[in-house]
Design brief:
The chain is globular. By secondary structure, it is an alpha/beta fold. Strand 21 and strand 22 form a beta hairpin. The chain is built from 13 helices and 22 strands. It starts with a helix and ends with a strand. The protein has 3 domains: 94 residues, Alpha-Beta Plaits (2-Layer Sandwich), CATH 3.30.70; 317 residues, 3-Layer(aba) Sandwich (Rossmann fold); 71 residues, Immunoglobulin-like. The strands form 6 sheets. A 7-stranded parallel sheet has the order 7-10-6-11-13-14-15, sandwiched between helices. A 5-stranded mixed sheet has the order 16-22-21-18-19, with no helix packed on it. It is 26% helix and 22% strand. Keywords: Hydrolase, Protease, Serine protease.
Amino acid sequence: MNKYIFNIIILFYSHALFAQSKYWIEFKDKKTNHSEQTYISTIALENRKQFGLQENQHTDIPINPLYIQQLKSFGINVLHQSKWLNAVSVYLDSLQLCKVRELKFVHSITPVNRNVQITSYSSKPELVEYIRALQQIGATTFEDEGLTGKDIKIGIIDVGFSGAKLSPNLKHIFKEKRMLGIRDFVDPENKHPFGGKRSLSDGHGTRVWRNIAGSNDQKQEQYGLAKDASFYLARTDHTRYEFRGEEDYWIEAIEWMDSLGVRLVNTSLGYSLGFDDPGENYSPEDMDGKTSKISIAARIAAEEKGMLIIVSAGNDGDNPNWWVISAPADAKGVVSVGATSSRNWSKIGYSGTGPEFLNYLKPNISCYSSTGTSFSAPIITGLAACIMQKDPLLSNFEIKEIIERSGHLYPYGNNYIGYGVPSAERVIALTENLDSNFNRTTEVHVQKDFFKIERIESSPEQVVIYHKKNDQHVSFQEIITFDDMEITINKPKSAVRSTVDLKDQVIEIFWKH
């Protein structure tokens, strides 16, 4: 019996010793003799010249192969490499972890022990959903201006693109050879990226794509704003398993797209809860733009590479265990897109809320989707493509500013729907003159505990009020219906300010202290 117990103890100890956990290993430097070599495409290089970005960047240089070789000598299998982060993801047992810690070229070792969620609800949203979203932003203005995303390259990082070749709404893209490339980072040997289904979610990227560029010439219907754009596609989600390795695939995909000179990328994926291993889950406090590797990579893409990244905000807005946006929507510099209702443009329940500890506004903008922020983000991607077509010399941050300033709540953005719903008409005006002023806001300082608004002809039936504890952070939203010719807004105890959304007009109430 004693010998049996001893063997059990030894077996347990051996398992603990050699059990592996996942880590990111970041290196101190890139000791290489190729610092002047160009590692990106000619198109990407020309983009950087055009927008005044550094041409040959340190983050373009691959990881020092000697460091990889040293890790392999310890029996460590390198899963993914990120030249931007100068880091690799690996699985290490306790002995390997001790050895890596002693390496002089290692800067840090970050454990992945703390998912990816497809940020949609419905597995098959109806095309009428897309049309309603386009109507909400007044998309016919782009059509009148002849803006269809022509000559703009768009990247889509998503789950899968099953059935895309058979979709009548994407037929024009294949026919005109504007599908420029596709890579499956989950299964590099996959020779049929548009065929077969691994899960019910494997056509998610197809529906996102349709929402960016969908069109049906026979029915004379348009479902996306960028029907004449060209596309690079990347699959980064496994669908059958949820693990943080999908985050690594995403980083590889964004680096690939940058190397090709892609300036506009849509990603309708969000990392938060729901991993198969609960230890890999993030916490809401991690949505700070600098904790997750995917958000760090997204920030580099925006700030250093000049890329415009459009990200769905996430669908946990009514989840008491989460409620905030998901990564990489928390990254500074990306355009995070929330979802609104179609009737009164209030935040729809599931749409992720911006964390109050951020010193910048999230989400940035919102538009209609009843089936998840996966299908509001592509509307904004198509809108961005139209801006790029109209003025190819605008930088990613200038386009981001135009999108935000076109929002119907601007400048009174909040962490529920950002600057609100963009207007195509305002986008055109801002693209032509960034100093355009639409004079649609009024500030009132109220000394009483209530404020009355008289109804005018253009007033909507329902009025949304965002009661705020400061200039951006919402305590709660209230929806009031006009009874007769006026409504009364009562000051909540928690409110310092309240934003009254009248669609064509915004009233910002400053309550007495």
